[in-house]
Amino acid sequence: QVQLVESGGGLVQAGGSLRLSCAASGLTFSNYAMGWFRQAPGKEREFVAAISWRSISIYYADSVKGRFTISRDNAKNTVSLQMNSLKPEDTAVYYCAAAAWATAQAMSVPGYAMAHWGKGTLVTVSS
């Protein structure tokens, strides 16, 4: 059974940093591009960042460019999201997703079919 388990969420002040991690199991991790999405209260889920299976291709939403960094460790089956200079508008539930044989940019396309989703971790940024 495939599982994506996010961790690292919490409460942080504006300007602070958090590092999210997603641990994958039950799948051949290197066959998947991995991504992070978020959903703020009352809003639709949106793309944040994605990374291809060999980390060659990385793609970010404009709203997080220069502040967030996605990385992966194929030996440990993990993908991480380092979030710096956090803003109150970054407050959301953050989800990890896996897309088989996808490019990082493809994961940013609204409606692109993800193979697997995690259950999310809450990030709250106070002003």
SSE arrangement, N to C: EEEEEEEEEHEE
Euclidean distance between termini CA atoms: 40 Å
Helical content stands at under 10%
- Rg (CA only): 13 Å
Average pLDDT value? 96
Q: Poorly predicted ranges (pLDDT <50, ≥5 residues)? A: none
Please describe the biggest sheet, giving its number of strands, its sense, and whether it closes into a barrel. 7 strands, mixed
Count of DSSP strands: 11
Instruction: Please identify the structural class as seen in this structure.
Output: mainly beta
Strand content: over 45%
Shape: globular
Number of helices: 1
Plain-language structure description:
This protein is mainly β and 127 residues long. Helix content is 3%, strand content 50%. The chain has one helix at residues 104-107, and strands spanning 3-7, 10-13, 18-25, 32-39, 46-51, 58-60, 68-73, 78-83, 92-100, 116-117, 121-126. β7 (68-73) and β8 (78-83) form a beta hairpin.
Would you summarize the structure shown here?
By secondary structure, the chain is mostly beta strands.
List its traits:
4-stranded antiparallel beta sheet; 7-stranded mixed beta sheet; 127 residues
Which helices and strands appear, and what pairs or packs with what?
Elements: E1 3-7, E2 10-13, E3 18-25, E4 32-39, E5 46-51, E6 58-60, E7 68-73, E8 78-83, E9 92-100, H1 104-107, E10 116-117, E11 121-126
Parallel strand pairs: 2-11
Antiparallel strand pairs: 1-3, 3-8, 4-5, 4-9, 5-6, 7-8, 9-10, 9-11
